[in-house]
Amino acid sequence: xxxxxxxxxxxxxxxxxxxxxxxxxxxxxxxxxxxxxxxxxxxxxxxxxxxxxxxxxxxxxxxxxxxxxxxxxxxxxxxxxxxxxxxxxxxxxxxxxxxxxxxxxxxxxxxxxxxxxxxxxxxxxxxxxxxxxxxxxxxxxxxxxxxxxxxxxxxxxxxxxxxxxxxxxxxxxxxxxxxxxxxxxxxxxxxxxxxxxxxxxxxxxxxxxxxxxxxxxxxxxxxxxxxxxxxxxxxxxxxxxxxxxxxxxxxxxxxxxxxxx
Length: 261
Ligand SMILES: [Fe+2]
Known about the structure:
By secondary structure, the chain is α/β, with parallel strands linked by helices.
């Protein structure tokens, strides 16, 4: 695995995490730009979450500020982690209603894309949805299942995560909208995902588990929930039985070219 150039910031004795002026400026650039792009494209639950959390524009927020709102709405909180964490730690955190946030922000050179999820991706992309009880319940269940799953099963669960929590679309009475944090933290993908370029398929969890993905390209295919509540329903269905079924059926052929060596 490629090693990261980023180092997550640690809090001082009082629990406060310090960032440089240049880092606050990157946050300001990203959030100012992206708030305009998600308007009318993100689902209402996400936009409500943005409003409830009340993210600052001029500086990187402290995790405690986000936690106050998450705790009050769904009982979740964010947990400070280093840039890269193992699968095991990831599932342990989700299973205890903690969403991992690496406390570093991308450099201006990587403003539009970076491989490691930074604090802008985690907080702006994911935390607004975590104020929604249906989304929060699904994410919690997902963590508990992942913790108990085998290594092979986790690979199938990872695809389900990718095509819902990261790259999910949802139909609403206002039209097709985005709820996936991987899309909502990227201006380019927010516009592209709702354009006529990618393929849209009705959400099917087994099909999602069978769909290979690459993390470094715009997604060729998105799954569309009939409504956000579908995630809550799924949390109460036999997801591990679906994993078994997906493993028997095998993977679909990729819709993208192989990664250049
Ligand atoms: Fe993410």
